[in-house]
């Protein structure tokens, strides 16, 4: 039912086009990632900027995939076609310090953001920079799940590491809370354990569960969905803050389920 794949070649679509993804997921032969980042891909935030991963090496052995990455692609914003680090830092500040902390207002912020992007022709881009962190990820592929183990060594101070698990927002258009179909979260909201993102058309859902948070690492879990011009994702995210900038053995599982299966 579900097939998983790792590829350097797929660089997405929409606002995040150009970035390499994590594990890609397919259902009945169709890729269900859309504009999402895939499963188990890392980003880093430091100094008011956000940086994404470039895959260095992929090793495959049976159902185990090991990937080494550098976090070296900086998110940039342009306004009226002119790249601006000031605009980039301002929008990153708004996203981290206001948007993610204001769950009840996120739908309004999403609408305002879409309007401003259109009026001011704000575009997203990515710029290669020096490595901000080295990352190694091990994926154990199951029939309906992916177990992920991450090691990350940051080269910058006060870094926050984000572990993303994003699939298509148009695919996973609903949510399940204690088995009841409900609206999915808007943007990024605090994750409620046991909740799932659900695709009514395909009859499948998926969720995230942490297995190990290393000593000295604080983990905050979020889930969310955004479907707008250039944006089409739904998924789960860990925000990791490490005392010494190093994460060793952060482990979690992404699990899929057919909704006609018993719990």
Q: Main traits of this protein?
A:
single chain, 263 residues, mainly beta, Beta-galactosidase, Chain A, domain 5, 15-stranded antiparallel beta sheet, 3-stranded antiparallel beta sheet, 2 helices, globular
Structure notes:
It is a single chain. The protein has a 15-stranded antiparallel β-sheet that branches. Strands 1-2-3 form a 3-stranded antiparallel β-sheet, with no helix packed on it. The protein has a single domain (2-258), classed as Beta-galactosidase, Chain A, domain 5, CATH 2.70.98. With 263 residues, it is mainly beta. It contains 2 helices and 18 strands. The protein is globular.
Shape: globular
Percent of sequence in beta strands: over 45%
- CATH architecture label: Distorted Sandwich
| Number of structurally distinct domains | 1
Mean pLDDT: 88
Secondary-structure content class? mainly beta
**Extended strand count:** 18
Highest CATH level, the class: Mainly Beta
| Helicity level | 10-25%
CATH topology group: Beta-galactosidase, Chain A, domain 5
Number of helical elements: 2
Q: What is shown here, in short?
A:
The protein is 11% helix and 57% strand. It has two helices and 18 strands.
Which secondary structure elements does this structure contain, and how are they paired or packed?
Blueprint: E1 2-5, E2 24-27, E3 30-31, E4 38-46, E5 49-61, E6 64-79, E7 82-84, H1 85-99, H2 106-119, E8 123-141, E9 145-154, E10 160-167, E11 174-177, E12 180-182, E13 187-190, E14 196-199, E15 204-212, E16 217-228, E17 231-242, E18 246-258
Antiparallel strand pairs: 1-2, 2-3, 4-5, 4-10, 5-6, 6-7, 6-8, 8-9, 9-18, 10-17, 11-12, 11-14, 13-16, 14-15, 15-18, 16-17
């Amino acid at each position: 039912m579900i097939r998983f794949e790792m590829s350097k070649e797929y660089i997405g679509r929409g606002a995040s086009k150009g970035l390499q993804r994590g594990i890609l997921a397919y259902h009945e032969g169709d890729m269900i990632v859309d504009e999402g980042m895939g499963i188990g891909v890392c980003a880093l935030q430091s100094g008011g900027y956000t940086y994404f991963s470039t895959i260095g090496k992929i090793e495959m052995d049976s159902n185990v995939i090991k990937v080494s990455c550098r976090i070296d692609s900086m998110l940039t914003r342009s306004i009226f076609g002119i790249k601006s680090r000031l605009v980039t830092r301002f929008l990153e500040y708004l996203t981290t310090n206001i948007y993610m902390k204001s769950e009840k207002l996120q739908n309004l912020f999403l609408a305002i953001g879409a309007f401003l992007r259109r009026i001011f022709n704000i575009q997203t881009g990515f710029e290669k920079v020096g490595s901000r962190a080295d990352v190694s990820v091990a994926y154990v592929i199951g029939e309906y799940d992916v177990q992920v183990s991450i090691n990350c060594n940051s080269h910058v101070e006060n870094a926050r590491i984000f572990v993303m698990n994003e699939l298509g927002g148009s695919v996973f258009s609903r949510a399940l809370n204690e088995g009841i179909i409900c609206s999915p979260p808007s943007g990024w909201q605090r994750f409620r354990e046991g909740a799932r993102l659900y695709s009514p058309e395909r009859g499948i859902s998926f969720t995230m569960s942490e297995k190990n948070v290393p000593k000295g690492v604080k983990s905050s879990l979020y889930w969310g969905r955004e479907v707008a011009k250039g944006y089409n994702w739904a998924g789960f995210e860990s925000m990791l803050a490490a005392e010494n900038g190093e994460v060793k053995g952060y482990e979690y599982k992404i699990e899929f389920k057919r909704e006609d299966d018993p719990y």
